[in-house]
Write a structure and sequence with these properties.
This protein is of the alpha/beta class and 229 residues long. It has a single domain, classed as Glycerol-3-phosphate (1)-acyltransferase (3-Layer(aba) Sandwich), CATH 3.40.1130. Helices cover 33% and strands 18% of the residues. It has a 7-stranded mixed sheet with strand order 1-9-8-2-7-3-6. A two-stranded antiparallel ribbon has the order 4-5. It is globular, with a radius of gyration of 17 Å. The two termini are 13 Å apart.
């Protein structure tokens, strides 16, 4: 069996966000993700675009597919480019929920705020994302971000992207959704389009399924899609 393909982290693109972080401005997400995907060799395969509804105001829910040599940025970029392919220019193509607040560091009896907590929310803003905390790390942080999402929801004319398993999700396994995801999907009250991410013959594959009701079990809907590979 051949080794899984390793996709280099596009550090130059990530560091290229520094000006936006400093100014509080936002990067062209369609261009950013297109550049990430263009470097993936072999190129990814996208299936089931016909399942994406005519109205782009839905929730895009996918399994958190990450492993050594494959950062979640790569699948998220492929999903974003699929939305661009289906709907053309949207600004932005997707509003992702991303983990940008981590548990406190501990050294004996002392604890310290993770250094990333200062930077990652600014990165999320630059990429049009809503930052949430690592599960249980800072519920107030997550609550503030989700309240902002729900407040801005009427004006959001693109998909809202979510990996319901959170950072606990890994390649090759479909796990349960984080607590509270079901309530959030009901509050958003938009159709949910499941997408299953996997690999087949050394190629990243994204498969979209038909929309499901926000009351449905989202991870069950993802698991029901054919598994790449």
């Amino acid at each position: 069996m051949s080794e899984p393909v390793s996709y280099p982290v596009p550090w130059d693109l990530v560091f290229g966000l520094s000006g936006h972080i400093r100014r509080g401005t936002r990067r062209d997400l369609a261009d950013f993700t297109a550049r990430v995907v263009a470097r993936m060799n072999p190129p990814p395969r996208i299936e089931g675009l016909e399942h994406l509804p005519a109205d782009p105001r839905f929730v895009l829910a996918a399994n958190h597919y990450q492993r050594k040599g494959l950062w979640i940025l790569h699948p998220a970029s492929v999903l974003t480019q699929a939305v661009v392919q289906r709907y053309g220019p949207l600004e932005p193509p997707v509003r992702w929920l991303v983990t940008a607040n981590w548990p406190r560091w501990r050294l004996g009896p002392l604890s310290f705020r993770s250094p990333g907590d200062l930077l990652l929310p600014r990165v999320a803003h630059a990429l049009w994302a809503y930052p949430v905390s690592f599960h249980g790390a800072d519920p107030a942080f997550t609550a503030r971000s989700l309240r902002r999402l729900l407040r801005e929801l009427p004006a959001i004319g693109c998909p809202i992207g979510i990996f319901p398993e959170g950072v606990a999700g890994v390649a090759g396994r479909i796990g349960p959704a984080l607590p509270g995801v079901d309530r959030l999907l009901k509050r958003i009250a938009r159709p949910v389009v499941p997408a299953r991410i996997g690999e087949e013959a050394g190629r990243l594959v994204v498969r979209f399924g038909p929309p499901v009701d926000p009351e449905a079990d989202v991870m069950q809907a993802i698991a029901a899609l054919p598994c790449p590979g």
